[in-house]
Amino acid sequence: MSTTITPQLTQNLPSGPSSSALWQMLQWIGRPLEFMEACAYEYGDLFTLRLGSLGQVIFCSHPQGIEEIFTADPKQMDAGKNNSVLLPILGNASLLLLDGEPHQRQRQLLMPPFHGERMRAYGSSITQITEAVASPWQVNKPFDVRGAMQAISLNVILKTVFGVTNSERYQVLQQLLPNFLDLTGSPVGASLLFLRGLQKDWGAWSPWGRFLRMRSQLDHLLYQQIAEHRNQSELGADILSLMLAAEDEDGNPMTNVELRDELVTLLLAGHETTASALTWALYWIHFLPEVRDKLMAELATADLNDAKGIQRLPYLNAVCSETLRIYPIAPITAPRTTKIPLSLMGYTLPIGATVAPCIYLTHRRPELYPNPQAFQPERFLDRQFSPYEYLPFGGSNRRCLGMIFALFEMKLVLTTLLTRYQFQLERSQPLKPVRRGVTLAPPSPFKLILTQRF
Ligand code: HEM
Q1: DSSP state of 14
Q2: Which end of the chain, N or C, is less packed with Cβ atoms under 10 Å?
Q3: 264 CA to middle of ligand 1, Å?
């Protein structure tokens, strides 16, 4: 189905800027926050933008509208098709690209490994990886926080999701994956994905040729990894082992191609996102001394060997929640295209309309979050927010599969760093997010100085 809305129906859509589609796309890419804020100021809770291959997209930042989208029949809302630009990286079987029954089947196979109880098995790996990344830092020397957090989150995925123990393969993947993923993070890489005309293999020196060679090297390593796991006599604790053991309702396990595509999907969805969230958290904790003091007071009374207890620390939880509120990693959820007319805050949207709950604008509503531009973890201690008011991980049948994993990792990494090291900002200046692929990330470089080891 096409995502373009027929002209006679566009009059039923909420209004939006009349500037050219190209200009709107440029604003969305280059100044996403300012653009969303200006549109919300001008048009309110619902507005329609024209965004390149997605066509017209209706942004919604009102909890009532978000509830209407999230509670609509998921079978009638397609999101996978809107991600098709990622196909060369992820492959046909990727959860991010599927819709309908195939999406539901794949999600059911993938959900059990991400269950909360399972996560705790990864606690010691996360702590060890954090210490290994931090060990070369020198006292009174600055280090690049984002680079360090990326190294932590990549290693956590290699160990706990891919289950890589073979040290040679580990090292090759460690080198290969950041370059492979750069295709979605860097502007040059992204233009390769969006401009199909550039997707020509003119040998190893052409950008697309380089990508294809990296992909076949990666696939070779992943299929080796899958084959080894299949031959294991005992089921490992890593997520790949659990994926191998999973069966659908008819008793069918995942094929090798499905496993490969889901591994790359988990990597793409989980690596940069968690690294950005951790970088922001470290920034806010050190930018606001009162936040740091309160957090350190809570950590001083905590049992640091009890991963379950750490997950439940109220102030640490509030700091992580506020980090993901003020600058959500994804400014919007995956855009959904409706297969039946959708009722949205008084509008009846036609078949083929694409809607996007706007996480950033919803998180900035002053009646929900007074003084929304201030970082105030206390707001999460004082009240509970509904899934339509606070949605850093999206919602409904597309809600982030790795939500529990990401929060667990954030809390353990922060606890490990803050209780073993002391830091200060290299420069105390406010940071504003920059676009990184489809996400919003802290600007690079952002540096902390290690002042003391405990
Ligand atoms: C702080 C870190 C993270 C944030 C903020 C985040 C946020 C999101 C958001 C907003 C979505 C789209 C949800 C929607 O459209 O309703 C999503 C989807 C997804 N996320 Fe995450 N994510 C994070 C970490 C992770 C991790 C660690 C993993 C796995 C290891 C992961 C795996 C996925 C997958 C597989 C999907 C697609 C779900 C589907 O389409 O059914 N994410 N995430």
Answers
A1: P
A2: C
A3: 13
**Strand (E) positions, 65-193?**
77-78, 142-144
Q: Look at residue 2 in the predicted model and tell me its pLDDT.
A: 37
Cα 45 from Cα 63, distance rounded (Å): 9
Helix (H, G, I), strand (E, B) or coil at 309: helix
Q: Is 225 exposed, middle or buried (0-12, 13-18, 19+ CB in 10 A)?
A: buried
Q: Which of 113-122, 312-321, 341-350 has the lowest mean pLDDT?
A: 113-122
Amino acid (1-letter code) at residue 302: A
CA distance 74 to 126: 34
Residues in contact with 56: Cβ distance below 8 Å, sequence separation at least 6, in sequence order: 4, 5, 10, 13, 48, 49, 50, 353, 354
Most ligand 1 atoms within 8 A of CB, residue of 391, 393, 438 to mutate: 393
For 402-445, write each residue's pLDDT tens digit: 999 999 999 999 999 999 999 999 998 899 999 888 899 999 88
Q: Which amino acid is at 267?
A: L
**Scanning the structure block, which residue is given the tokens 């080894």?**
228
Whether 39 contacts 14, CB under 8 Å: no
Rounded to two decimals, what is the model's pTM?
Answer: 0.95
3-state secondary structure of 300: helix
Residues at CB less than 6 angstroms from ligand 1:
95-96, 107, 161, 265-266, 269-270, 273-274, 277, 324, 329-330, 333-334, 392-395, 398-402, 405-406
What are the structural domains, with CATH classification, of the chain? 1-85+329-362 (3.30.43.20), 91-328+363-453 (1.10.630.10)
| Gap from CA of 97 to ligand 1 centroid (Å) | 13
